Amino acid sequence: MPENDADIINEIRRASRSLIRELGLLNRTLAGTELSASFVHALVDIGNAGTLTAKDLSDNLLLEKSTVSRMVKKLISRGDLTETPSPTDNRQKDLQLTEQGQETLGEISKYAEVQVKNAISPLTNSTRQQVLNGLEIYSKALKRSRLSPGNNKEWKSPATSKVVEGYSTGLAGCIIKMHAIYYNNFANFDEVFEATVARGLSEFIPRIKNTKNSIWYAENDHKVVGSIAIDGEDLGDNIAHLRWFIVDKEMRGSGVGKALFLQAINFCDAQGFSEIHLWTFKGLDAARKLYESSGFVLTDEYQGNQWGKQVLEQKFVRRLPSKI
């Protein structure tokens, strides 16, 4: 048995990882469907409620509104959801399952019921109740921690930090400057690197309105402190290219980088790209941990000098569901 707080924390983390794996949450799809976990949870929540707005769904799933909006569009295009104006608020639309959506939810429920039944059938009634009580207690504890004013959230300063999707006047210059300063310190990159970043951005920015492309930036006290982009066109074959991921030195360790990264990953999941590719340099260990924790795998490593200096370049790939 764990003897101190550190041991208990490690054991809870270990048990949580095991639970996530056994539930299949690391798979590209969930519950015997072609849908990712967020899509499955959306259908379950809407089905249980009967009718939900996109805002309700965002609050329930703890996902950004832009992510939920894209997910709703995908589910409507699949034929699982219908969207109608709310009779009580013209600014909102009610989401309901279609007949096909009900059938999809039925398949999800059958899969989950069998999974749980097979797991608990050998257990005594008292042990089953212990399992239920433990899950409920831990879930509520996590929620209390998340909502606590003093908790360490993703943001360094929740009052002044935010992630914004889309292009804003002057954004390209901010992204170029952050890259130039950081990589000059990292690998002594000079004006050749800065010009290369500028050319790439100048080619990409006019294409942002394509639904397969998007860009996000983090803002703190009205200053751009991070960026990330998904280019869904340049690699072809339904492959997303993750580009221009950078966080200002002052905000590293604050959670801003992770928030930006998750926005990009959720966008790719909602778009249904088959893979995400990214290129980086050996030695950026904090970023590599973030990539690998999100399912990216190092697939290639080679010496390159396209940036004006010879460095060891790395390619990471994350495979995604080809269908949503």
Largest sheet: 7 strands, mixed
> Count of DSSP E strands?
10
CATH architecture label of the largest domain: 3-Layer(aba) Sandwich
Question: Which percent range describes the beta-strand content?
Answer: 15-25%
Question: Do you know the CATH topology of the largest domain?
Answer: Aminopeptidase
Integer count of domains = 2
Structural class: alpha+beta
Fourth CATH level, the homologous superfamily of the largest domain: Gcn5-related N-acetyltransferase (GNAT)
Unreliable runs, pLDDT <50, ≥5 residues? 149-159
Query: How would you state the average pLDDT, rounded?
Result: 86
**What gap, in angstroms, lies between the N and C termini?**
43 Å
Q: Strands of the biggest beta sheet: in what spatial order?
A: 4-5-6-7-8-10-9
Shape: globular
Count of DSSP H/I helices = 10
Give an overview in words.
The chain is an alpha+beta fold and 324 residues long. The protein has ten helices and ten strands. Helix content is 48%, strand content 20%. A seven-stranded mixed β-sheet has the order 4-5-6-7-8-10-9, sandwiched between helices. A three-stranded antiparallel β-sheet has the order 1-3-2. The longest helix is centred in the middle third of the chain and has 23 residues, at 125-147.
Quick take:
The chain is an alpha+beta fold and 324 residues long. The protein has helices at residues 5-22, 37-49, 54-61, 65-78, 99-120, 125-147, 171-187, 191-204, 256-271, 285-293, and strands at residues 52-53, 81-85, 93-97, 161-165, 214-220, 223-231, 239-247, 275-281, 297-304, 311-319.
